[in-house]
Amino acid sequence: MSANCDELEVSVWRGDRLSGHFEVFHVPAQDSQTILDVVSWIQQNLDATLSYRYACRVGMCGSCAMMVNGVPRWTCRTHVKKVMNGNKLEVAPLRNLPVIKDLATDMDPFFDKWIAAEGLHHPTKTRDEPIETINPDSTMRAEANAGIECINCSVCYSACDTVAGNVDYLGPAALQRAWTLFNDAKDSGQNAILEAVSGAGGCHNCHSQGSCTVFCPNELNPMKAIAELKKATTKSFFKKRV
Fold first, then answer.
1. Per-residue pLDDT tens for 130-171?
2. Residue-by-residue DSSP string for the chain
3. Among 75, 80, 185, 192, whose CB has the most other CB atoms within 10 angstroms?
4. What does the pLDDT read at residue 242?
5. What is the pLDDT of residue 17?
6. What domains sit in the chain, N to C, each tagged with a CATH number?
7. pLDDT for the residue numbered 120
8. pLDDT of 86-120, one tens digit each?
């Protein structure tokens, strides 16, 4: 540890994924300091050109997610004292996504895979028809409810080693969204969903390592959703063969 315990040594990624590098900044240590506080202090006091993304600052939007000492985290809810190595920190852009600049990543591939997994609502009724009554205690509603708190932060996508090794893999967030809609009584896209998630980049690529579930800030369980999709697609396959 540095002799100056009131100062943090922060290595921050600068540039893009291919030609970037870590730059070291020295930041005053403060009580109840978050990683986002550290990054903001650097941008406001040391280098105004530092690029990063955030919005709500209270763990509601997920846009401030970054790699902190090699782990994907919401930086607004990650306290420095819980993650620092001695008095050192390393902050980098999320893994598995293109880097726009510094700590800001391009989220397009992440959302493109949501669409590819049919992670969009397929309505069963028009706006002119009466609203459908849903039984909140049904098994399918419980399955749907288990995934609706996903806020698209991409932490699970960044944590996934399968995504890192297979650019076509849809990823845990897209597949969890597909499972949520598959169980939604107001969604008519069950067949389209199963078709979308059973292909080359679909649910059967998952190796069940579980990083998506371990690192989800909202304590969701994408690994279980993916396992259920594997079952559903397998059943659908054999039904078609009969």
1. 988 889 999 999 999 999 999 999 999 999 999 999 999 999
2. --S-TTEEEEEEEES-TTT-EEEEEEEE--TT-BHHHHHHHHHHHT-TT-----S-SSSSS-TTEEEETTEEEEGGG-BHHHH-BTTEEEEEPPTTS-EEETTEE--HHHHHHHHHTT-S--BSS-TTSPPPP--TTSHHHHHHHTTTT-----HHHHH-HHHHH-TT---HHHHHHHHHHHT-TTB--HHHHHHHHTSTTSGGG-----HHHHH-TT---HHHHHHHHHHHHHHHHHHHH-
3. 75
4. 60
5. 84
6. 7-105 (3.10.20.30), 108-241 (1.10.1060.10)
7. 94
8. 889 999 999 999 999 999 999 999 999 999 999 99
Amino acid at 88: K
Query: Token pair for residue 47?
Result: 């280098």
The residue with tokens 């399918």 is 140
Dihedral angle over CA of 137, 142, 148, 153, nearest 10: 150
